[in-house]
Structures are given as C-alpha cells and as structure tokens.
Amino acid sequence: MRETGPLVHCLTNSVVRQITADVLLASGAAPAMVDHPDEAGDFAAIASGVLVNVGNPTAEQVEGMHAAIASAREAGTPWVLDPVAVGGLVLRTRLSTEWLESGPAAIRANASETIALAGTGAGGRGVDSTEEVAAAAPAARDLSARSGAVVAVTGPRDLVVTHHDGLERATWVESGHPLLQKVIGTGCALGALTAAYLGAARAAGADDHDAVVAAHAHAGAAGTVAGRTSAGPGSFAVAWLDALYTLTPEDIAGLVTVTTE
Amino acid sequence: MRETGPLVHCLTNSVVRQITADVLLASGAAPAMVDHPDEAGDFAAIASGVLVNVGNPTAEQVEGMHAAIASAREAGTPWVLDPVAVGGLVLRTRLSTEWLESGPAAIRANASETIALAGTGAGGRGVDSTEEVAAAAPAARDLSARSGAVVAVTGPRDLVVTHHDGLERATWVESGHPLLQKVIGTGCALGALTAAYLGAARAAGADDHDAVVAAHAHAGAAGTVAGRTSAGPGSFAVAWLDALYTLTPEDIAGLVTVTTE
Amino acid sequence: MRETGPLVHCLTNSVVRQITADVLLASGAAPAMVDHPDEAGDFAAIASGVLVNVGNPTAEQVEGMHAAIASAREAGTPWVLDPVAVGGLVLRTRLSTEWLESGPAAIRANASETIALAGTGAGGRGVDSTEEVAAAAPAARDLSARSGAVVAVTGPRDLVVTHHDGLERATWVESGHPLLQKVIGTGCALGALTAAYLGAARAAGADDHDAVVAAHAHAGAAGTVAGRTSAGPGSFAVAWLDALYTLTPEDIAGLVTVTTE
C-alpha cells in the first residue's frame, strides 16, 4: 500500500472528512474530497479507489455520488459503499439500496446497517450498532451475493464475507480497542482505507477479499497499539494516527488474529 | 447521563462537526448529524435531544433545521438553539429570532450573542464575545421570559438563567480554562452537550435548568483538568476530550463552583 | 499579529475547516467561516482578511465566494486565493483563473498548482504536488505579474515572489518538517494564516510581501519544533498547534532561514 500511494476519492459525510483524510495520509494513501457534480465524475475516473459514504448527504453531493459511481464503474475503479445509518432514514436507505446494483467492490458497515441494507431487520437508531456482528453474517452473505461486493461487517470482531460467482470466503479479523467507538469517524475512515487497499491491490493484481481484510487489520492493529498508551478518546485518536503511520506489515500481522471459516 | 446514552441530533455548522461529535461520544452520548430536509424531521422525532446551531448555515440545512424544530416540538424532544454570531449577520439573526417562538428548551450563547438576540445591543464581530457575561444578565432574563427557554451565557464564568412561568433562577458556574477560547468548537460542542443533558434529564424526570448547569459544569471541569497538563491549544484539546471521558460526577462537583443568586 | 488579532473570513473547503480555525486561534487571529451568499459579502467587508480556497466547493459556496471577493475588493480588505488542485478539475480551474483578475493580495499554492494556474503545465493529480518548488518560479513570477498578488509556492522550501508594478522580490523560506505533508489541511491553514498576516500588516502599514513571508515562517518554524517531539502525524498535528501558539517572533527568526534572491 505505501509503495503505491493510492489516490482515494472520498465522497463522504461532512463530520468525518478531516479524520478520514488524516487516516489516509497516515496510512500512505493520498486523499481527495471532490463532491461537486461537475468534478466528481472526472475525478473518480483517475482515482485508484472511490469511497461513497451516505452519512449526512446533501442534494448536491448525492448528484456528485451518482456521477462518481457511474464513472468509477466505467473506468473499472473499485468503489466502496458505506451505508451509514441505513434503515432508519429514507434518503440514504433508498440510495444505498439502489447502488447495490452499481457494482461496489466492497461494502463496509456495522451489524445493524448490514442487516438493514439486506432488508432483513429493523435498522439501528443511527451510527451505532445495536446488533452483534455474528448476527449479521447471513445478511452479509446475502448482500455479497446480490451486489458482487466483498462485505465487511465492523464490530468488536470484524467479519469479511465474499459470497458470489462461486466464491465463498468468510474471514474474521480480531483486533482493535473499545475506544475506537468513542472517536468519531474511525469506522468511516476505515471505509476510505478499504478503498485505498482495494486500489493498491488492483494495481498489484491482488485479491479484493484480501485487500479488505488487510485494511481492517491495519486499522484494528493501530487501535490495539493506541489503546495501550491512551488516557481517553482524545489521546487515543492521536495515538491511533501515529500507529497507522508507524506500523509495518509485520507489526500488523503480529497484532491481529485472522481466522478463516 | 452516561447511563442513558442520549442520542443527540445535531444540525450544526460544518467547522465544528467533528469536535462536537467527539465531545458527545467522550461524554457518554451518541451523536448523529442529519441535515437533509428529507431526513431531519424523522430523525428529530426519535432523538433524545436536538441541537440547532446557526453558524455557517447552507440554504438546504436551514430547511432541515425548520423540519427538525417542527418535529422536535411535536414529539416533545428538547431542542437547543445556539445563535452563533447573531447580530452582525442577517440570515442567522432572522432565523434565530424567528425560532425563539418555537419553544427551545435552552439557548446557549456568549454574552454578545445573548445581547444581540435579545435586541438590546449592537452584536459582536463574530464568534468571539466583546461583552462581559454579567452585562448580558438582563438580556438573558428577557430571552428566557420570551422563549420559555433556559438561557446559558458562556464565558469565563457561565450564567444559567430561567425566568418564565413564575420560575426565577440564576446560577453561576465557575470553572474552565482560558485555552477553551483557543480551540474551535468548544462552545458549539457545549451546545450539543446541553442537548444531551436535557435529553437525559427529561428521561429521568429531572429539571431542565439543572441539566443545563450540569452540562456547563462537565465541560468546564474538563477544561480545568486539561489546563493543568497542556502546553498549548493542541494538547489542551486532546486532554479536554480525555477529561470529558474520565471525569466522574464527583470529580466534576469538586472542580466547579456553582453559585445560585 | 497577536496584538492586532485580525478577524479572518475563511471561505474554504469542508475538509479543513476545523484545523484552519484552530491554526488561526493558536496563532492569535480570530477565524470566522461565513459561506452563505446572503452573509458572505457583508462579512468580508468587516473582516481584516479573507481566504478563498477552492478545494471541494459547493455551488452555493461559490456564490458566497463571488460576493466575498467583490466586497473585499470594494472595502480594500486583502484576500488570498488558494487554488487547490487546479489544473485537473474544471470548475475550480475556471474560477481560479477568473479570480486572478479580481485583485488577490496573495496566492498560495504548491508547485503543481502554481504551474497549472499559470497555464504552463499539466497540473497535478490533486492536492499533492508532483513538481519541485524551483520549477514553479517562472510560473509564480508570471502569476504575480498578471494578478498583482504576492505569490507563495509552498513546498520543502517555500518561495515567495512579488513581480509587478516595478517590484521584484523573491524570498526563500526554509523551515518545516516532512510530517506537515502527512496532516491534512496544513497547507490550506497556511493560506488562512497568510490572510491573517496580511490583515495585520495592512493595519500596521507594513508590506504585503513581508507579511506573506512571516506567515510561512511562523507555520514552518512551528513544524520544525513539532517534528522534534512527535511519533507520527497524530502527535505532530497536536505539537504543531502548540508551537504555533507558543513561539515568539524571536523563536521563529531563530528557526527559519530566509534568503532573498
């Protein structure tokens, strides 16, 4: 990832743009937020990966998202869908459901969002998940089958599922720290990091599923390290960015337990 | 507050969304920024509290604010008005004045904004206050009487005033640190924290005035603690978030001087 | 600068608004983000300096930018153009080119953006520069001649050029730290700091070119200090804000090498 320095085009919510960009920079990628409908299509065509995060969208940004997705699809750029708070809110639920048909390379969500997007549950009350990751496994398989995407369900343990075109893989990633839930944007930034790893993997001819696992391992391992020295969510966020920057692939491998079902 | 984990719907300015969310998470609340007019009304109805902060609004967000306020009012959700920089700027002054009629549970402002909103002064030059808190006491009483809200005037010492329907209370909260003025969004985040405390208080059958005092005490006490170890505004912001997370109610009581007039 | 406390009106991209405001506060200025077309013109007239940063604009914000620039020009308020990622993206390239005619006091850009705006290169791939600062010197001179602005090209060494109305100055500022590239918004915030220093300089009857040099020296010196103690981009950003706040003019002079060609 660091060698490629993938350019990640983020169409994401206004709450987390700064930390998303900082996470990408710390991890060796190059962030660019380009939301305007007149620019988003052109930019998605030259980016290495695209993130579409539907948290707190504006009407104009939604137009930019449509343009970016169409352009990414045409250019073969991998794009990631982060269906923030789908289920309870009408606009983002409609958009996310519609975009399942547009060939996302990956979907990153918490358990509640995964279940809501698959249409098998009632949805959460917002950005925090009221469901266990394991309970979302059938919904993740279903979403993967319908969309062709790798589906990552983020939680205390992350589950990465590929279940389409004869592929069947389910990988658990165990790492992280509870304070990740107390810093805004750690999950949203992980969606962007997933787009970065997918961009790097495609350039190297590597596998999408492995790229999504690697992104979650990187973020989780950095969380584990940050948790050791932090006194609360403020110092945790700082240490997490530092660890994202300093951890080597070997460090990450030693900090994360990856289990394949 | 931590037991309830109130869900706070924030319609706030784009400069402070990240720190506002981080402050709510550190304090035990759950933040959600939902600005789109198609979603804001639905969300305000299920939230525990709503913040409407008029700093740097967009036309679309203003529509969302109208929807959220109407919905909060109908659902009985307490909502907080933060009239950032009213007085000097036409749009936000018109909106804030209009919304005084819409039953805010609390108004949080600095002294200049309080005086400007009450229509008794010339207004400040922006987000910093050019007036002393004590000078804003008559304006705060007037605003409380007209709107039915608890009015909090934030400054070196905070003044919380309730003056309507036969209630007459004025409470001074002494805490904090000068570096709070050197970190963007500490005041705006306090508006969101006020909405969180109001949501928790309503759920527990407690008093609005006490909830507003408690929010200011929590933020101020964390500021006092952060000021002890920080070398400037960068490290202060980090330590403030840590302290918001770690301070117990007993810690806060020991760090703040509360005086009732 | 600290004595004047210039009020800086920032119309900037949504990714960097928080860090931009924090940098201004830490440096002794007062930030205000006012983007709405109904307010931006009025505010630019009372501000000490205005920043127009075209990264990730919205249609509504572009209207606000037009109003602010017209108003700044009429009021004699110095305004700074930061042409983020011009060259590759159509909207911002058109706007930035058009605004060269509107009398910016300064232009702050990286080498790729400088070359692209001058129309002499192919542009970069986004916010990071693919060109050396020295290679942008002719483009900087050309831009200064055409616009009347002081042109600052930011990079490992910063180049500040004035080349119009018989003035010919080129100053190199050597300071900073590589981690400045790994924290989002350090360059954009420097654009705002440039507007602050210009506002203070105009109030004191001092020179625009010297003000732009001073802004770059302040940011760079703080970067040098922050680099000494940080373990990665997270702790670097914190230490940078602390250093912006604590460094005296004498400290800065001792940390920066300024060379006049």
TrEMBL record, chains A, B, C:
Pathway: Cofactor biosynthesis; thiamine diphosphate biosynthesis; 4-methyl-5-(2-phosphoethyl)-thiazole from 5-(2-hydroxyethyl)-4-methylthiazole: step 1/1. The keyword Metal-binding applies. GO terms for molecular function: ATP binding; hydroxyethylthiazole kinase activity; magnesium ion binding. Its EC number is 2.7.1.50. It catalyses: 5-(2-hydroxyethyl)-4-methylthiazole + ATP = 4-methyl-5-(2-phosphooxyethyl)-thiazole + ADP + H(+). It is an enzyme of class 2 (transferase). InterPro entries: Hyethyz_kinase, Ribokinase-like. Keywords: ATP-binding, Kinase, Magnesium, Metal-binding, Nucleotide-binding, Thiamine biosynthesis, Transferase. Substrate binds at residues 33, 185. It comes from the Bacteria. ATP binds at residues 108, 154. Its cofactor is Mg(2+). GO terms for biological process: thiamine biosynthetic process; thiamine diphosphate biosynthetic process. NCBIfam families: PRK09355.1. Catalyzes the phosphorylation of the hydroxyl group of 4-methyl-5-beta-hydroxyethylthiazole (THZ). Belongs to the Thz kinase family. This is Hydroxyethylthiazole kinase. The gene is thiM.
